[in-house]
Design goal:
2 domains; about 35% strand; mainly beta; about 400 residues; four-stranded antiparallel β-sheet; Immunoglobulin-like
């Protein structure tokens, strides 16, 4: 471009565009999220933001952050947050829960004392919550073993000091089960809302010792598929307390014999089965309860004379029966038998619902086998044991 003296400077539009164009490659426009990275220990290191506010950094390599570029790219800054730290926002955002656990081995009871919660997340419009605590034993039917505290109104730091007790908890349960503590917000007009939960493996609790916990509430893990047949077959339906006692044959004297009008007799031995109580039964009715009763059989039973039934107790998931039934049988014959115990929900006018059952024999496993063998080996001694009811319906079990 040449300009003669005395003439006005003129520049064509093509020359104007060529002068103002920015040399170098065209870079894409950054998104605003690139300036606020959220890193975690498991995520790959993202590209650090490279704002074009400073001309000295405008041509920096895009793969280096400003501090790294200034130091030649030989050092990196770790901006990740330890998600397991007590000081992290993820640990304290939902609040903390303080409680105590104690397992009484002699009476098979698990005591959970809910003490207090602090810093709970606000769930209501007034900036507060109406919290309560629910307990569940996992794995197991949630409705059958749910325990619940009272509700504290309008508080983010509630104090309960309330003890909830599970009965029928065996040593096997303590080794394989987990206690789930869920803090919820009660709403009268809508569904109750979950604030957070904490889970404790019961194997951490030593028998007859009180263990204190102060845990951070967490979001619940993903729910497993309830349609999975493997989970359905292992579902627990409650607990049953049975007593077994084999009475050996004894001589009996008729009361009339003392008066000269009778003779001495003989009473054969047999099995005395005591149906004591059930705990945390599955709810089979729409009202959230069941009308349970218990049936027992001693099989094989060709003449179908071994069936006994308890009374029906209305609207309860923790019935106490305290009934005993006697089978006259020798010890050698009893060793070949199978005691089948089933719990049912009574329904008027239609088929009764099966809640759960348990089998005791020399071919059983676990607690069923141990209870049966203790009875056979200790004649005359009453042996009590809790049994887990499962929803598996054996072929020999039938409806009334």
């Amino acid at each position: 471009m040449t300009v003669q003296r005395g003439k006005k400077l003129s520049i064509s539009i093509q020359e104007h565009m060529a002068i103002n164009v920015c040399p170098g490659p065209i870079r894409p426009i950054r998104q605003i999220s690139a300036y606020f990275p959220r890193l975690s220990p498991t995520s790959p290191t993202p590209v650090s933001p490279n704002p074009a506010l400073s001309p000295n950094l405008a041509c920096s390599p895009p793969s280096l952050s400003p501090p790294a570029a200034a130091m030649g790219g030989n050092s990196s800054v770790d901006t990740s947050v330890d998600i397991n730290s007590d000081d992290s926002d993820d640990c304290t955002a939902l609040g903390t829960l303080e409680f105590e656990l104690r397992y009484d081995q002699s009476c098979s009871e698990l005591h959970c004392t809910i003490i207090r919660a602090k810093g709970l997340k606000s769930m209501d419009f007034n900036g507060l919550s109406d919290p309560y605590v629910k307990l569940h034993l996992l794995p197991g039917a949630s409705k059958a073993n749910k325990l619940k505290t009272k509700t504290i109104r309008n508080s983010l730091n509630p104090v309960w000091n309330e003890t909830l007790t599970y009965v029928g908890i065996t040593e096997e349960d303590m080794n394989r089960k987990t206690l789930r503590l869920t803090v919820c917000d009660e709403d009268k007009l809508t569904h109750n809302e979950l604030i957070g939960e904490s889970r404790v493996p019961l194997k951490r609790v030593k028998p007859n010792q009180t263990k204190h916990y102060r845990t951070c509430l967490e979001h619940p893990p993903p729910v497993t598929n309830p349609q999975d047949p493997s989970l359905h077959s292992l579902e627990e339906r409650g607990r049953l307390l049975l007593s077994l006692q084999f009475l050996p044959p004894v001589d009996v004297v008729d009361a009339d014999a003392d008066r000269g009008g009778g003779e001495e007799g003989w009473r054969g031995g047999g099995l005395c089965v005591g149906v004591k109580r059930c705990a945390h039964l599955a709810a089979m009715d729409v009202n959230g309860f069941s009308d349970p009763y218990v049936k027992i059989y001693l099989k094989p039973d060709t003449q179908k004379k071994s069936k006994h039934k308890t009374a029906v107790l209305k609207k309860t998931l923790n019935p106490e029966f305290n009934e005993e039934f006697f089978y006259e049988i020798s010890l050698s014959e009893l060793a070949k038998k199978t005691l089948e115990v089933t719990v049912w929900d009574y329904d008027l006018g239609r088929s009764n619902d099966f809640i759960g059952g348990v089998c005791l024999s020399c071919r059983s496993q676990g607690d069923g086998l141990r209870h049966w063998m203790d009875c056979l080996k200790n004649t005359g001694l009453k042996v009590e044991k809790w049994h887990i009811l499962t929803n598996e319906l054996p072929r020999s079990f039938g409806h009334d």
